[in-house]
Amino acid sequence: MTVNVKPIVKLVDIVKSYKTEQGQEIHVLNNLNAEIPEGEFVVIVGPSGCGKSTLLFIIAGLEPVNSGTVYLYDVKVTKPSSKLGVVFQETAIFYWRTVLGNAQYGLEMKGIKKDKRREIAMKYLKMMNLQDFINSYPKELSGGMKKRLAIAMVYANDPEVLLMDEPFTGLDYPIKCRLQMDLLNIWDKEKKTTIFVTHDVEEAMMLSDRILVLDRKKIVLVYDNPFERPRKNKLRDEERFIKEVQKLRSRFIYL
Amino acid sequence: MKKILNSRGVKVEILVDLDKRRHRILQISSVFIILIIWEVFAIILKLITPHAYQIWPTFENIFLNSLPQLAVFYGMGGLGTGTYGQEPSYWFAFLVIGYHTALTFARIVAGFLLGGVLGIGLGLLVKANSKMYAFIETPFRFIRIVPIMALIPLFIVWFGSKEISFILYIAFAVTVVLYLDTISAVDNVRPVYQRFALTLGATRGQMFRTVIAPACIPELLGGLKMIVGQAWALSLAAEFLNAQNGLGRLIALARLRLDTGIIIIVLILYLIYSLLFLKVLTLIGNYITRWVPRIER
Known about the structure:
The complex is a heterodimer.
Chain A: E1 7-19, E2 25-37, E3 41-45, H1 52-60, E4 67-72, E5 75-76, E6 84-87, H2 99-103, H3 105-110, H4 114-127, H5 143-156, E7 161-165, H6 173-190, E8 193-198, H7 201-207, E9 210-215, E10 218-224, H8 239-251
Parallel strand pairs in A: 3-8, 3-9, 6-7, 7-8
Antiparallel strand pairs in A: 1-2, 1-4, 4-5, 9-10
Helix pairs in contact in A: 4-5, 5-6
Chain B: E1 2-5, E2 11-14, H1 24-48, H2 59-69, H3 90-128, H4 130-143, H5 152-159, H6 163-187, H7 191-199, H8 204-242, H9 247-256, H10 260-288
Antiparallel strand pairs in B: 1-2
Helix pairs in contact in B: 2-10, 3-4, 3-6, 3-8, 5-6, 6-8, 7-8, 8-9, 8-10, 9-10
């Protein structure tokens, strides 16, 4: 599908280990390699605690590596920047700013003028269906709305790559499905390169162009998603979809 | 399960009663009982000796005799200078109270503001710049142990009895406490906020200004509220020892005249003022922290 497109993110021989408080060295990633082409929605799946989030933080420049390099457009990534936007698992929106203030945050940091900022922020807030709450404080939003705000904030900042760390984990199923659809809607409009981490195989199947399975410290499987876009919620109930999810799940063992 | 009336007047069943504002009658009655015990004790002592009022005045002594006596202090400490020897009267007593209250209040507010700015500013600076932190850390360890009241003589020597002396003294006390509070508050800011800000393109400086500082505000307000009582107590001590005017000075003058009633009046005023101060601070604080998610009662 995306064979001839230039890779935008390259992971070369990533090695990462942690020292625990007891002094033990825990190896998380061992010579991990991957290439993600421009405009692709890649999902990284794996059992909990296998290092998916760590990998995402490494790509974002938030975590150092023991050895190996992350390249963004052939430039080494060493620190976080607005080029690599992150939506965190823990909703990190700023409670002391209004919804509109939050959406404008990245643009404000860049120094973009007030009118332009507002225009861009409103555009993405509309896409996430938050236009009626622009002057509310986050404390008045529901859990799902807060997630949508976080996504709008990062999208408004126009990063080159969008990194999402299990953003919908812990939400109840209907809201999760709704947010997945919202995400696909907004992704559809700009086809931003996205790296999405989750342990939910169904979520991976619904969102991805390709799935990278992370297990035993490496990418052990690269899976091309056969389902055509645009994908609707009812796809979840179709037999071929359920079968494919089961097949993929059985390819690796959950802890 | 207990049955109570909630804030909307609806009878509800609850497991644990966490509302501290209930049982108003009990709250007031304990105060009443204390006042009654006071009066009874004073009357008993009066029966033993007529001079007992100098140690333990009755309410009659306090409000009918001592209160107008405050008028005697008219002409002292800058109020109505040159018109000494006023006859006891409520009106002049009121003027005296008003004047000295205003002075004490002004000193405390100025000291609080100055101390707040310095304490929070220093705390943020030190958290942003680890070299500064290492530099200031050791002297501060000693400063925070020294009881602040013991420093009153030092401030007298350095700044004399002028206004600035009291303002700086209060500011010093507030600074030390808020400095420590700010450091703790910054440490308590969730790391994910910092990460999010950085991935949205903020520089470290911007992140400090727009994320860490606002995130600390609720905790810092709590710290400010906690030192209101201490600030008023310190001001009382400093003015008592050192000032020409102000409420603490009134206590010193009353002591010279052996008028215990005035001392009690001023103490009651201190109680009222510090509670008022706290109330105003709380109202301002509630507006500033209007964005904080609170538990719905």
